[in-house]
UniProtKB/TrEMBL annotation:
Gene3D superfamilies: NAD(P)-binding Rossmann-like Domain. Keywords: Membrane, Transmembrane, Transmembrane helix. This is tRNA A37 threonylcarbamoyladenosine dehydratase. SUPFAM superfamilies: Activating enzymes of the ubiquitin-like proteins.
Length: 241
């Protein structure tokens, strides 16, 4: 592998750290505003093996916040657009694309398809998110889960905490409540922002793909969530692996 492009990274994490990242295998589920940034910055850090999952296509309403969303990519599959970017960053990346919305019954199959070191849950619908978290926990695979970036505007309030420590996030509250029914009340790392959500920005939907509503979102907040998630994974792999 030509590692000259990772010279600055190696100066910081040393050759041993870089080798850990190159040998790591990461799963990113959801390539919207959070997941697209997370996947790209994992690749830029030198992660050597990645599986990306999303069944959606780029919509013009994605342009305000999602990395793959451009006028020229509207209508294209997000997984294809993101994959092209990742391979342009690192042609040696061993990349698997899964172009589908992960239904609950598929979570087990995906998680058993490779020896993943870390899972990034960037799904914005409660039921699939829960299924992924539960499936990862049962396999004792490390997971970081993104909570709601919508309705939030203060980047200084973004943090990573255990699910039991989340606050002022409606999505996190729903996830916590349903995880308790599965006897899981801690042990899941979450990216969330603890400022109050703007309730006036809420819009209801038709419930397609398990999504019943969404909040208005400003350009930078999902990206910050994605970078926090990527940093959580990278720092874990460097320290623990």
């Amino acid at each position: 592998m030509d590692k000259y492009w990772l010279e600055r990274t190696e100066l910081l994490v040393k050759e041993e750290g870089l080798e850990k990242l190159i040998k790591s295998n990461v799963l990113v589920v959801g390539l919207g505003g959070v997941g697209s940034f997370a996947a790209e910055f994992l690749a830029r850090a030198g992660i050597g093996n990645m599986t990306i999952v999303d069944g959606d296509t780029v919509d013009i309403t994605n342009i305000n916040r999602q990395l793959p969303a451009l006028r020229s990519t509207v209508g294209k599959h997000k997984v294809d657009v993101v994959a092209e970017r990742l391979m342009d960053i690192n042609p040696d990346l061993k990349l698997t694309k899964i172009n589908e919305f992960l239904n609950p019954e598929r979570m087990d199959e995906i998680l058993d398809s490779a020896p993943f070191d870390y899972v990034l849950d960037c799904i914005d619908s409660v039921t699939p998110k829960l299924c992924l978290i539960i499936a990862a926990k049962r396999r004792r695979i490390k997971i970081v889960s993104s909570m709601g970036a919508g309705g939030k505007t203060d980047p200084s309030k973004v943090m990573v905490r255990d699910i039991s420590k989340t606050e002022h996030c409606h999505l996190a509250r729903q996830v916590r409540k349903r995880l308790k029914k599965e006897k899981i009340d801690k042990g899941v790392r979450c990216v969330f922002a603890n400022d109050i959500q703007d309730e006036e920005s809420l819009k209801m939907t038709d419930g397609t793909n398990y999504k019943r509503s969404f909040y208005g979102t400003i350009s930078y907040m999902p990206a910050i969530f994605g970078l926090y998630a990527a940093s959580e994974v990278i720092n874990y792999l460097l320290d623990k692996k």
